[in-house]
Design goal:
Two copies of one chain form a homodimer. With 182 residues, the first copy, chain A, is an all-alpha fold. Chain A has ten helices and no strands. The structure holds a DNA duplex (30 and 30 nucleotides).
DNA sequence: TATATTATCGAACAATGTGTTCGGTAATAA
DNA sequence: TTATTACCGAACACATTGTTCGATAATATA
């Protein structure tokens, strides 16, 4: 990849995340992005078809980083053991709290539905692949897809609630809440 | 209210719901609405400040109707008893199924975040007022706001899942699913 | 019924945002 | 050194928004 391309791409991503921390996705215009990134209009469209594609690629980068780093740290088999103190969900909360990458800024926004959708989709893959470890007695009789969707939704909603309430709870505490309602 | 105002308002609501059943809220333009409703542009803006306010007023009308009709049918005290065959949630599912083709179309859309937000907000009021009846032993130790939010979110997500999967389950069945994960 | 009010029309308008085009320039790769 | 290609910047057509204004017709009121 051409060095110029890399620079331009990075500048756009940087400008975009900066703007996302200040306002909702739907309120951001291409004009603002290119002004903040200091690139030409045609250049933006040479890289990204639309604003939505830009968000999608940003999400892929963020979530790929997030979930991959998690997998690296937890290659042992009790990742999803609810009682394990180092359950994957606790580590997800911790990663989100030590938010290097401004994910939480995006989660707390009002009209960032697309972002949540992408986040949930990736999370769902993770949960689905480990569903057997998450199942309890009471879950018998439920379709797998329903259960997986429910767990993913509950996690996303828990994070949203946590952020919207100012992150008053510790990571282990909010993880407890999550496992309690699951 | 002037008869002309009523007619115009109804025509706009009708056109709007028709369009909403065909495409996402964000893709609908004021131009389409007024063409479909056959009213002037200035007339539209005399009634609604923006597209968003139109959606808000439509939601208020729909949900007011939905929740009020439910309250009327169930003034007895075990509305929220999980085991009661006529629990409020079962009736909510039934109301949604006998849908006048409006609410469910909106719930299934991709980018109808605002709609879901309004729906959840009204649902939350209902749940919050009856939270004690919904609490189980396992819920002890959770903040009320967290629990109420979780129940409301789970209901919304359950409905969404149900609709997205083609409403293959019966109302009582999907209600069972809901109570199982709650 | 006569009169005053007011909702609507229709057409035009500025303002903003989107996505594209094109020739010129400069960085990069070969 | 030469060919390629990413970028600039300016302009462009187009769509959408929200407003304005005088004329018209439906409605309320007396």
């Amino acid at each position: 990849m051409d060095r110029r391309q890399r620079k331009t791409r990075d500048a756009i991503f940087k400008a975009f995340t900066e703007l996302l921390s200040k306002k909702d996705f739907s309120a951001i215009t291409v004009g603002e992005i290119i002004e903040c990134a200091d690139v030409g209009r045609a250049t933006f469209y040479a890289h990204f078809e639309t604003k939505e594609f830009l968000l999608k690629e940003l999400c892929e980068e963020l979530f790929c980083h997030l979930f991959d780093s998690m997998k690296g740290e937890h290659s042992h088999h009790h990742i999803f053991n609810c009682n394990a103190p180092d359950s994957a969900f606790l580590h997800l909360f911790e990663h989100l709290e030590n938010n290097d990458n401004k994910i939480l800024d995006l989660l707390s926004g009002e009209n960032n539905g697309l972002f949540l959708q992408y986040f949930k989709k990736d999370l769902l893959h993770l949960i689905y692949s480990q569903l057997d470890n998450l199942k309890t007695e009471k879950h018998k009789g439920l379709p797998q897809e329903f259960l997986a969707n429910h767990i993913a939704s509950t996690f996303v909603e828990t994070v949203k609630w946590w952020v919207d309430n100012g992150k008053q709870e510790s990571c282990s505490q909010i993880t407890d809440y999550f496992f309690t309602v699951i």
